[in-house]
Amino acid sequence: xxxxxxxxxxxxxxxxxxxxxxxxxxxxxxxxxxxxxxxxxxxxxxxxxxxxxxxxxxxxxxxxxxxxxxxxxxxxxxxxxxxxxxxxxxxxxxxxxxxxxxxxxxxxxxxxxxxxxxxxxxxxxxxxxxxxxxxxxxxxxxxxxxxxxxxxxxxxxxxxxxxxxxxxxxxxxxxxxxxxxxxxxxxxxxxxxxxxxxxxxxxxxxxxxxxxxxxxxxxxxxxxxxxxxxxxxxxxxxxxxxxxxxxxxxxxxxxxxxxxxxxxxxxxxxxxxxxxxxxxxxxxxxxxxxxxxxxxxxxxxxxxxxxxxxxxxxxxxxxxxxxxxxxxxxxxxxxxxxxxxxxxxxxxx
Length: 349
Hints:
- This is ABC-type quaternary amine transporter.
- One of its GO terms (molecular function) is ATP hydrolysis activity.
- Its EC number is 7.6.2.9.
- By secondary structure, the protein is α+β, with helices and mostly antiparallel strands.
- It contains 10 helices and 19 strands.
- It folds into 2 domains: 5-227, Rossmann fold, CATH 3.40.50.300; 237-348, CATH 2.40.50.140.
- Helix content is 29%, strand content 31%.
- Strand 18 (319-322) and strand 19 (325-326) form a beta hairpin.
């Protein structure tokens, strides 16, 4: 099957610094892939190359099998939704949405039909004659999305589209965008620094670091089996320990343990520890425990031990990393409950 989008060896140098470094990625038709990573990792530069606003120093870009590397943004079969919405304040919502079709000299009757169609799709038909200042931030974002979709692009590009919304509205609008994307079956690239957003809406997530993709996986796999030390530390919360028994480390080796896989036991059981902090999170608490000079974070539901309390610790699942790369063999036996207890008893003795 021809990919909906193919990036092959993309490289971009700006100010003498390599921002994107030999990046390759294929998206299946209709797939939504997020580019996720810290500031400066190259995700926005990558999106701007896909859109045609930047020319790669090396590599190629194909949309549904057609090479668009040398084309300007106006000639590419893609449309972008910007972070700041970029709506004309003096125009109505309908005229904002119609603007790219007017520039492309689409017949007036067709413009009216396509604008009405896309406004209904995003639920803004009742605001067709409103100006941007008269509608909410979420509605402005949907108007910006409608302006992109009215062009009937083969590729939809979303540049931090929800960053200007408050937390509750951001959740609602991201669900609306995902629903529309799936109904249309349009290949989509989302750039975001928000892990929760990327994990919630994506078919796959590409985690970037230093201009390269460290891992591209389905959200559940990304969390369950981070391929590198960087991904393990960047996605979700994690504990980095010398060994599952909290003993002496091998050179170049460490273990990653998610807080939900740190079980707190009664004092005298497991590895001895002491609670140093308790951070409530509503339906659960994050509890910091020091055990054998190692600080661990544990997620606790139900009864939460007090600060200063003596507890036991059991590590129930851990992944081994050697020289920053996941030891895949540790995935096969990541549950270390019995081994940890036996080793802990040996160390204690």
